[in-house]
Design brief:
By secondary structure, this protein is of the alpha+beta class. The protein has a single domain, classed as Aminoglycoside phosphotransferase (APH), C-terminal lobe (Aminoglycoside 3'-phosphotransferase, Chain: A, domain 2). 45% of the residues lie in helices and 13% in strands. A two-stranded antiparallel sheet has the order 1-4. Strand 2 and strand 3 form a beta hairpin. It is globular, with a radius of gyration of 14 Å.
Length: 119
């Protein structure tokens, strides 16, 4: 899995963006910290995990935790590879987080989500 994550670095954008980067480790995914209007995110209220990087990390997070999220992948080079890379990274971090906290219920929930998305 780590080899696949490192391989995507070749395709990552060279332009950095502000990334919300919340991986949902609060068990209740932090999309609740976002405000939306007319189908667009208009505000984000919690920037605890913010970082500088590829904006597709946030797209991967939304796709990982939310069903039916659609992003126009034809507009982004190497979309599928980048999304899979970031989702694998999110999956590893989520499992680590819940294992460290010995939160068995959340770990099982996350594991089920991971197996559903990443097989």
């Amino acid at each position: 899995m780590l080899d696949a994550i490192h391989a995507v670095d070749v395709h990552a954008t060279t332009t950095g963006y502000g990334v919300f980067a919340d991986d949902g480790t609060g068990f209740f995914p932090s999309w609740r910290a976002s405000l939306a209007a007319v189908g667009r995110i208009t505000a984000v209220l919690d920037w605890l995990d913010a970082q500088y990087g590829d904006f597709l990390y946030d797209v991967a997070w939304l796709d990982f935790w939310s069903s039916g999220f659609a992003f126009p992948e034809r507009c982004v080079a190497h979309y599928a590879e980048r999304i899979l890379c970031y989702q694998r990274s999110i999956a590893l971090n989520v499992l680590r987080f819940f294992a460290q906290r010995q939160n068995v219920e959340a770990y099982r929930f996350a594991r089920h989500a991971i197996l559903s998305h990443l097989g």
